[in-house]
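Exercise 7. Predict the joint structure of the components listed below.
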Amino acid sequence: MIPALTTGSGAADAVLVVAPLLAPLAAAATAAVLRWRLATGLVTIGAAGIILATGITAATRTVDGTALTIGNWLRVDALTALMLIVIGAVGIIATCAGLGHLEGELERGHIDDTGAHLYSVLVPLFLAAMVLAVLANNLGLLWAAIEATTIVTAFLVGHRRTRAALEATWKYVIICSVGIALAYLGTVLVHYAAQQAGVAEHGSLDWTQLSAHAEDLDPGVMRLAFALLVLGFGTKAGLVPLHSWLPDAHSQAPAPVSALMSGVLLPVAVYALLRYRVIAIASISPEFVRALLLTIALASLLLAASLLITQRDYKRLLAYSSIEHMALVIIGVAIGTRLAIAAALLHIVGHGISKATLFCGAGEILSRTGTTSIAEVRGLLTRAPVLGGAFALGLAALLGLPPFSLFFSEVGLVRAGLTAGLGWAMAVMLVLLLMVFVAIAVKASGMLFGEPATQPRPTVRTLAALPFATAAPIIAGLGVVAMLGIVDWPLGPLLHSASLIAGTP
Amino acid sequence: MSNGLYVQLLYLAVGGLLLSSVLVLWRRELSAIVRLLIVQGTLMAVVALLLAIERDSIELVVVAAEVVALKALLIPGILRRVLRDSAEARETEPLINVTASILTAAVLTLVAYGISRPLVRLAPSIETQAVPVGFAMVLIGFFVLVTRRRALSQIVGFLLLDNGIATTAFLLTGGVPGVVELAVSLDVLLIVLVLQVLAARVRLTFGGTDIDELRDLHD
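Solution:
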């Protein structure tokens, strides 16, 4: 079931495994000592760059099926390398936008020096926790790392200390802690099943060993465990039934933090489910795994579609769109064939980068117009051509228009679903996607082209231009998403290799 | 220790755990609820200690000590501080009254027996027979979380749920591997600290910790 692996563990490889973890930790330490200043911000951007660079280097090492490991604890294979690349890429966009964001917030007096200090320490810690989650080969460590993301992001979500931000933070911490606690119960049950099946005591939460001996695990226990894991990590991924924290947290958090949460934190939770699916598919009936994931994904998609139609707040619009896209990714995981997994992973990359550019763009719109209401933002394209243009292109990417890669990953999903005999699910999915498309397109055209209904101020009032540090990564990110749609290289072989790890033939 | 005594003590402790969870539903004074959490933390350490003696495991003795430190001393200490700062001695009228809550707890316990059957069936032993109690504690914690309004009560609900999971882990596998156990404990402690800070901010901003007041954000 798992392709024959050769394991590399030379000194250079060890550096490759540890560097993406140490870089953000070092950045956090720097920020803790130096407090907020331009240098601190640049070090954090550098750390995100190192994550991306090691991700790419690791991809070239692991694309042939090699896995780099440190003991039983850390492991880098093609799937990990892909996630590192997403974390690094989204990290660069978000940390670049963070520079302008913090300066602006300080200028307007929304936060003080202590707030900026806290922000500049927590953001690299957040990156480190996500990197640890994708590096972890021990399922207990994976769980602890995802739980740690809740702890470090709590004060980032509530960074502005307003009533609404506080409410969002309370819901976020309570709901995600409960969800992730259920995932822990699932982990405990997997540990029990492994112990009873005689997988060695200290290896019994070891993913490599568990996936190799998955068929020995008791199906009754594993069924309960997998249901709890889907519920628990699904909470963190914004899936029903414990999704209600997501729109609040994403709309209240500072834009760069929303970008990180939506672009990479949700996929990291999905990544945990991908790893567990490999074990579940061999120990319990594949039909159960598929039915469970498909039910939750379609229900989430329905919820997102119906709330997108009535949405009046553009940051919440982006948040519900994240639920929609995670639901699509989970549909890919549910189908589970190699094509479906490759499409789901490509979707994670495309969504991560384009959603990050959109949240950063939304943050800039908010700081220029002072409102998050869709109805009050009008004529963006004429008032701020670069910002409006980037926002429009980002939305086009999000809606799955060609040439952006989300178009091709959605086509891939549908093809995989039809091949797997899930025509009805694909039909439901496409109808819901059409609803989403219409909902977002109508609202976006108002924001981009519309004329203000009431005219307290001149119709066309130019907004301040986008600073280069924010604009460059946004435009580059959109360029990458478009390029990934057009050419198979460079991601194709890596996606194939990752789908061999997580997919079934 | 003779086998009979071990079984009796273990079941006594596990029974006490379930009882302490149910009593949280009954008591309205928040200080009494914190005392119940101390009792529950101590009983969990007793379970770990009994397992340690039965299995001659030094590691479990260490875990028992850690459970006492965390769940019977440190976390209740934090909760006391939340309580002292907030000057709210009682849970306001919960969404569901006490009688109905206790009846629900009985139903939840039955449900717990139902869903944990595959676990007992895999390896019927003295310890795994008691696993439904762990599940019942999880469900009761969840119930407290959704029906109580005070910030502190919600933290208590989360802790009951967490205690239920830890109890399940002890009874099923004698706890998770040491490093993971440490990471989990640290996470729980940090979450409680985060919630403590947030509860203080809620009180400052909203003038009370009635979570029902938090309803600005919705669709």
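Discussion. Residues 58-86 of chain B form the longest helix (29 residues).
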